[in-house]
């Protein structure tokens, strides 16, 4: 145990020297499970994913149809508001930016924000410009395997920091919703679940914007 502790501390010091660890964060080699409410059941025969609002053509996709969308792999550092950070996490899923560039999804000029709708009415909000960055993904896999139920199976939004890319906005990890069921494109912002409870609306990890 002591060897693991000292190795983690060495890794943490290295991450700080490389400016990969935001203020107030500590490095973890585990993947803590944090969410509000129970883990929902998943039925692939009835599950669907919707995109609506300020878009040219709303979409409703079955699980089979969703898995036919173009796939993206991404390696990112993730930073939780509860002060843990995990580096070099590997994800696979669907890039919103890719869907727009391929013309599969066409936001209207009035679209400026995206509201993530998840099971049990959970929500998370982000500016559209952030959702169209390379570091936002609709993820189905983590570390080469389908997401575990506790980590959002079958689909979750994720956002993190791509190493050596300081041109991207990086919010805390809660800004990606677990058990995602839809995206609502909006002309005006709306506070999500945790933002209504006092968490910061922008949630920039480098500015340590934890609470409003």
UniProtKB/TrEMBL annotation:
Top-level taxon of origin:
Bacteria
Tell me which InterPro entries the record gives.
OxRdtase_Mopterin-bd_dom (IPR000572), OxRdtase_Mopterin-bd_sf (IPR036374)
Which Pfam families does this entry report, sorted A to Z?
A: Oxidored_molyb
SUPFAM superfamilies reported for this sequence: Oxidoreductase molybdopterin-binding domain
Please list the residue ranges annotated as the Oxidoreductase molybdopterin-binding domain.
37-194
This chain belongs to which protein, by name? Sulfite oxidase
